[in-house]
Write a structure and sequence with these properties.
The protein has 44 residues and is mostly helical. The chain has one domain. 91% of the residues lie in helices and 0% in strands. It is built from one helix and no strands. The longest helix has 40 residues.
Amino acid sequence: MRVVWLALEGQAFFLAFLGKYLKSLVNFKVTDLVLVLADGAQPL
């Protein structure tokens, strides 16, 4: 029973980590895109 609990806890931790990673990745991409668009919008 304890092994199952540890496995579930590990999975929850992994999913939380994955979610946080994906979220930061998306945020980074969006920020990157906004910067590129802002750069392109400014007259050189």
